[in-house]
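Chapter summary example: a protein plus pyridoxal-5'-phosphate.
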Amino acid sequence: MLKEYNPYLEYKGDDLYLDDVSLRALAEEFGTPLYVYSGSYIRDRIRAYTEAFPEALICYAVKANFNPYIVTLVKEEGAGADIVSGGELFISLRAGIEPSKIVYAGVGKTVKELEYAISSDILMFNVESLMELEVLDELAGKLGRKARIAIRVNPDVDPKTHPYISTGMKKSKFGVDIKTAKKEYEHTKKLKNLQVVGIHCHIGSQILDVSPYIEASQKVVELYYDLIKEGFDIQYLDLGGGLGIKYKPEQSNPEPSDLAEAILPVVKEVKAKIILEPGRSVVGNAGILLTQVQFIKDKGHKHFVIVDAGMNDLVRPAMYEAYHHMVPVERKDRPYIKTDVVGPICETGDFLALDRELQAVERGEYLAVLSAGAYGFAMSSHYNVRPRACEVLVEKGKYRVIRQREDYEYIVAL
Ligand code: PLP
């Protein structure tokens, strides 16, 4: 069952291993909470995309996991970057990703961020409002540059995912309405420092059924032909990211090849390059959060396993009531009990699992929280003055620390 999450995750004897490295040994050497990522898995996932979409540009969504070593690894596999901030641009460039493979979305780009990206000559700004078009034009003019743009359109397709990560609906803050997008495209004709090169859409995240992608790409292709007729030179269709991953044991998830089967027939006549922006489906199941059991507490009607990873380390359960599967790092025969797995933070929402059937664990033992590679460390914080976790990259039996554990001095240093 573990191999369905990640083929490099397995028990050897009674110890859990990731990419041929013992997780218990890592927890003992580096302490917990500890994020561990499988390099082999991340490489496989980028290759799965490039094989399914041989003509496309795969821009890894840096927001999912911005660790510079991870970004370098996806770059080594030929991926570009999808960014949403100046910080993500900095990390992408530092990892050696060519500007010609970087696309930049986001509803609230600042002047400083726009100038940085214009000067870096990135492939394309995915512009989210009319006002952003005007500001970008003005800034590009000042810098004596032309900024290549796509307009992010909202196809009003329901991706059937959590409302917080559903981004392509009419009511969402993202993009412009696809029905009126021609107006924004027409407006660019007055803006001399912009060059329209594409259409962008991203309908949401953790999408487990590919049919919304078909509907969204059909709408985007319709707009493509309309714009071509109006004389626009649309060279890129950026169809975003969002492919879902396995979180629950009973869940099955689509592969990049399923996405290709859904999308490619819709775009096959189109003479534009396809761009995809996968994040979660590249790194999500590459990663594990290791946590140590601190206390067991039985209140009669309720049982708690209290661990040293809190919502400041992994906020997804608190934020989206997300399910993360958990297994003990040491395998042994023991009964299952129904328990809440909770962290040390002073919030009732600080849980990793509620009413979970978990094998009875003891104080001091390690638990592996699965599917933690995406939006895990990336969303972590210092809440309750907790230094952020250490991150380790493992690959074929080798390991290296890719981010040291913070300490109290680090937190107050600035
Ligand atoms: N592209 C854009 C514009 C996004 O907003 C996101 C996520 O929110 C992604 C790509 C990556 O999505 P995912 O990690 O679900 O693949």
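Key point: Residues 61, 63-64, 82, 105, 167, 202, 205, 240-243, 277-281, 374 surround pyridoxal-5'-phosphate (CB under 6 Å).
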